[in-house]
């Protein structure tokens, strides 16, 4: 099969990879219908994470081709959506709704690499969710978004306790930030403030439900949020960037007793303990347990209630993945969908 290999930082190639096969009785092999490039794929691309002939990709939708002898929830021919973390969905951690911390958790990005024609999915019963039927071509991008960016934005909005009567501030206008705006809207937030300086992303944020746009950053951004909330700060703040400035902006924008949901991967962020202490806020973050939300998200997409697929603004064939990485690295694209066939 064909698949993306990152030889080293900045060097992405599409090459022949061995076809995956069933290894464990709990595995499934799927043929991908579409895959995509994530903002987090840019970390190795930019040399922030090491890359040495690394398989790439962790978002996926496709059709089950083969199952192991113990798989019962999905069958060959089923169209499925999976999370970017493998989970058994039965252990205590999964049952509590934190499938990304499953005792059998495995990051799809590191070992499986779904920027490819096929993938072996361990713990298929716990990881994959089948759709009610064969999706239309228009539904594919939306279902693919559910695999990570929508599920992650949703988790951040839930962590921030976005809901009726709440003012929600979203720090970050990348794909996850935009999906968090969508989630906050669906969860019934009264006011949604998107922090963005990018005109096209501001427009998309408004499409997904943002009521206000704030262009200021850092302390000025915090002040602007306070000005918009009677000096109190937002009830709910979502951090979807992961830099020092964005994280402290998110902490500062959260009102006392409010909730911060943080999903930007914050490699180099140093949080001064005393600032977090005196902020007096609830925080919940980490790799999103997308699997918890997948059944509901698939329903919302199936019923046409949400349209997360608009977050993809560039579509390329898998063979042109290198151009997709360049476009995202240069911020010419928010999120790149890769088609197969
Ligand atoms: Zn588990």
Feature tags:
Rossmann fold, alpha/beta, 341 residues, 13 helices, binds zinc ion, 31% helix, 2 domains, six-stranded parallel sheet, 18 strands, seven-stranded mixed sheet, globular, Quinone Oxidoreductase, Chain A, domain 1
Could you give a quick summary of the protein structure above?
The protein has about 350 residues and is an alpha/beta fold. The protein has helices at about 40-45, 90-95, 110, 125, 140-145, 150-160, 175-185, 200-210, 220-230, 245-255, 275-280, 290-300, 320-330, and strands at about 1-10, 10-15, 30-35, 55, 60-65, 80, 85, 105, 120, 130, 165-170, 190-195, 210-215, 235-240, 255-260, 280-285, 315, 335-340. Strands 3, 5, 6, 9, 10, 17 and 18 form a seven-stranded mixed beta sheet that branches. A six-stranded parallel beta sheet has the order 13-12-11-14-15-16, with helices on both faces.
């Amino acid at each position: 099969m064909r698949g993306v290999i990152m030889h080293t930082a900045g060097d992405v190639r599409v090459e022949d990879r061995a076809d995956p096969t069933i290894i464990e009785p709990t595995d499934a092999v799927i043929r991908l219908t579409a895959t995509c490039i994530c903002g987090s794929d840019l970390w190795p691309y930019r040399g922030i994470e090491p890359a040495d002939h690394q398989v790439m990709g962790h978002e996926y939708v496709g059709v089950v081709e083969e199952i192991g002898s113990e798989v019962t929830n999905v069958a060959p021919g089923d169209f499925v959506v999976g999370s970017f973390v493998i989970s058994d969905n039965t252990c205590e951690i999964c049952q509590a709704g934190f499938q990304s911390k499953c005792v059998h958790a495995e990051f799809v990005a590191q070992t499986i690499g779904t920027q490819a024609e096929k993938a072996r999915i361990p713990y298929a019963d716990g990881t994959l969710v089948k759709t009610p039927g064969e999706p239309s071509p228009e539904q594919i991008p939306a279902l693919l978004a559910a695999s990570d960016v929508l599920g992650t934005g949703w988790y951040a909005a839930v962590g921030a306790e976005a809901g009726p009567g709440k003012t929600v501030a979203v720090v970050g206008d990348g794909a996850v930030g935009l999906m968090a705006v969508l989630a906050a809207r669906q969860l019934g937030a009264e006011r949604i403030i998107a922090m963005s300086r990018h005109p096209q992303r501001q427009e998309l944020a408004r499409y997904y439900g943002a009521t206000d746009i704030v262009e200021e950053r850092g302390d000025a951004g915090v002040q602007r949020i306070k000005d918009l909330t009677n000096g109190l700060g937002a009830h709910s703040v979502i951090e979807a960037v992961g830099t020092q400035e964005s994280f402290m902006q998110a902490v500062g924008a959260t009102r006392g007793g409010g909730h911060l949901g943080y999903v930007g991967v914050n490699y180099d962020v140093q949080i001064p303990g005393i600032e977090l202490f005196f902020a007096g806020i609830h925080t919940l973050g980490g790799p999103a347990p997308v699997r918890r939300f997948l059944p509901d998200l698939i329903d919302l997409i199936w019923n046409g209630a949400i349209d997360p697929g608009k977050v993809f603004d560039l579509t390329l064939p898998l063979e042109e993945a290198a151009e997709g990485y360049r476009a995202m690295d240069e911020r010419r694209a928010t999120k790149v969908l890769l088609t197969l066939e």
